[in-house]
Amino acid sequence: MFDIVTPDGKGYRESAVYGAGNEVVTYTANGVRVGCAICYDVRFPELFLALRRAGAELIFLPSAFTLQTGKDHWEVLIRARAIETQCWFAAPATYGKHLDGGGDARFTYGHSLLCDPWGQVVAKVSDGIGWATARIDQALTERVRRDMPVLEHRKLV
Predict the structure, then answer these.
(1) What is the 3-state secondary structure (H, E, C) of 100-135?
(2) Please, where are the H alpha helices in the chain?
(3) Which band of pLDDT confidence, cut at 50, 70 and 90, is reported for residue 19?
(4) Is the pTM above the cut of 0.85?
(5) How confident is the model over 98-157, as pLDDT tens digits?
(6) Of the options 3.40.50.720, 3.40.50.2300, 2.40.50.140, 3.60.110.10, the CATH number for the domain spanning 24-136
């Protein structure tokens, strides 16, 4: 749960309203195994490794990253998770000003993006509202995984 204080002193306490999941979830869409995660999950690489081990080729990661955390962490974390797992990432992200349940203004970063298993951003929405598309190239996924088999090379410490 996103229970933090941002650099400007604003607090977030998702655990007061939401409960955490307790399963690794995947499904198949058009022949592609999709792993499910959300927002703050991107900070926990163990979940993404579990999704990869569950067969994920694409990870769907919707988000409402805060403006302050997003500008510094959003893209770099997604790219790192893509490289670590050798999965595609589809990361739609809420953008702009929103009011929380108490009527306070909250600002989200946006910058929806699609990233390939090599960690390259293949499509992105920069500042503002928009959309981006890309095709999932399963041959690229297979080639990256074959040529650098990181899952096979992982050792438990």
Answers:
(1) CCCCCEEEEECCCEEECCCCCEEEECCCCCCCCCCC
(2) 45-53, 67-85, 138-147, 150-153
(3) confident
(4) yes
(5) 888 788 888 999 999 999 999 999 999 988 899 999 999 999 999 999 999 999 998 876
(6) 3.60.110.10
Contact 2, 14 (CB under 8 A): yes
d(CA 51, CA 37): 9
Instruction: Indicate the domain borders of the chain.
Output: 24-136
User: Residues 6 or more apart from 83 whose CB is under 8 A from it?
Assistant: 117, 118, 119
